[in-house]
Batch of 4 targets.
Target 1
Amino acid sequence: MPFEAAVLKEHGVTFVVVMVQKHIIDRKVLAGQTRRKLKRLFRRLPVVLVAQDEDGVPMFIGRQDLVRFMRKVDLKDVPWKLYSIEQPDE
């Protein structure tokens, strides 16, 4: 399963921003589960999820200090990379 993410550093804090679908942000339980899984993948770095609404306005879920920082960042300037998680066959 491919996804876009970026590892950033701000005020000495290294964290990861992950682009997700809006329905993940809309459902708090699903957002929490997603953040926990990604935190394990990214070696326990704090995780901020970002999705865009219909108008392209970003919405964030994560640590409040990191969310406040990300609200000031143009998502076009984020150094996104494509990552992949292997999904086990069900």
Target 2
Amino acid sequence: MNKPHLTFEWSEKHERLEIHASEAGLHKLADMLRSLVDSKSDGHTHLMSPSWGGDALSESKQGSDNRLINHVVIYRWPEGEPRSQSQRPQ
């Protein structure tokens, strides 16, 4: 399998988050999300680029005017409404 490519990039021009991924990168993201879904409790997962100490995100941005996001945190909330910022899973 090829090395996964996965970037989260902010496009200021279009005011949107862009996710760029190879097939291997999408599989890696899906596995991380599946693991979070299967977790027995509220939780979270970190995706970081190598310069931030991780290996889940790539460092080669795809949009020339985009800003690369080096650290993404995905929180798993219990069923129902998300809680306030102070109650988020640690």
Target 3
Amino acid sequence: MFIDFVPEDQTVFSPAEVATMLCISRRTVLRWIEEERLAVFRIAATVRIQRSDLVVFLQEHHHEVAQYAAGSEQGATPAETPNA
């Protein structure tokens, strides 16, 4: 499962780091944040995601994350991928 990709020695991540570790686009991570599906905390304009919040999100949405990861491998989002 995707939780295995979350480093245990790191407690906070940027949206770009989350995107890289999950093999999805940064824009997808930012959309989840905008939709308030992925919890974040902000310091001025800086957005960070706590490891614990990321783990909860991945447990609740692992099927969706897998679809996005598969779509990004093919250069498409799940909405653009047939049968997704």
Target 4
Amino acid sequence: MLSRLHAAEEAVRVAASSQGDSKAEADLELRATLALGQRRCASLRCTNMAGASEAELPTRRCGGCGAVRYCSESCSREHWRAHRAACRRMQAQRAAAG
């Protein structure tokens, strides 16, 4: 499973660097995270396998957008650089809608 996650992370990095756009990079990161829907923690580098399976990991939603979950504060901090632009865009969309 980790090799698949590393491959997804590398695909996001390559696609984003070829586009050279932070908005595109954030969109690709979010799509990759959502495509790996079986992952409970949004950090692609998460190795926390507490419990019987990853599906049982206790998680907390992102405090900004609420769209992604993290198993720990360290995973949240590690993933923030990749998630920041998408998070802020989702917050702005939510504010505009409501």
